[in-house]
Design goal:
It is built from 10 helices and 6 strands; from the N terminus they run H-H-H-H-E-H-E-H-E-H-E-H-E-E-H-H. By secondary structure, it is an alpha/beta fold.
């Protein structure tokens, strides 16, 4: 009601919090959640693209986009291109994923790197995307849906935050796997602004450096 009428964001209750409202024995609830990890797990299967058979190196999937509304969440094609260049030089296989919204970005990247990047943008539905993300070693993207899908199948993620707060990061939700994030430094006073379009010059994204993200990827993947 608060969300629909007053546009106030309300945190969803966990399964445990819902059960605690049902007058059940608290000791039984605590025992159950101690014995059974309450994690989000999306079912997945081997994808038709079979990335593990195609590549004998570490695989990183990248999604450069967000929804049409949230332009302020985009780290930017120039930064992603520089990151991809560093990944390729580090002998890491890059796979591009996304919807029709990322086609222009993927064309720019594919033209620059040719066959060195495997382009699946606009070639998967959500089920296929989920299966693809289960076959990779790490997902990198903006604060958007694919990061949650990757986390849901247990894949490690690095999420980049600009206009939104890191409290939305998959790291702080009930997902398995290791998850990391990058956000602007404290000197960027306008973060998080929650504006869908930046009124200035995307200072928040400028503050997140390509080399820092690349170094993190190399440490996470141990390459």
């Amino acid at each position: 009601f608060l969300q629909k009428v007053f546009k106030i964001k309300v945190k969803s209750k966990t399964v445990k919090e819902i059960l605690e409202k049902c007058n059940l024995n608290q000791n039984n609830i605590d025992k159950y959640f101690k014995e059974n990890d309450d994690f989000i797990r999306l079912p997945h299967f081997k994808s038709e693209f079979d990335l593990r058979a195609k590549f004998d190196k570490k695989i990183v999937a990248i999604s450069t986009g967000t929804s049409e509304r949230w332009l302020s969440k985009k780290w930017g094609i120039e930064r992603f291109t520089k990151l991809i260049d560093g990944l390729i030089k580090s002998d890491i296989q890059v796979v591009l994923v996304g919807s029709s919204l990322e086609v222009d970005d993927s064309n720019i990247i594919s033209e620059k790197f040719n066959e060195k990047v495997y382009n699946l943008v606009n070639k998967t539905n959500l089920t296929q995307l989920k299966n693809v993300l289960s076959e990779i070693d790490l997902f990198i993207g903006n604060d958007s849906g694919p990061a949650h899908i990757a986390a849901g199948v247990g894949t490690q993620t690095i999420t980049i935050f600009g206009s939104t707060d890191i409290k939305h990061c998959v790291k702080f939700m009930e997902y398995t796997g290791e998850h990391f994030y990058f956000k602007p430094s404290e000197k960027i006073k306008c973060h998080p602004c929650y504006k869908t379009k930046c009124p200035t010059k995307m200072e928040c994204m400028d503050d997140i450096k390509v080399n820092d993200v690349l170094e993190k990827v190399i440490r996470v993947l141990d390459v």
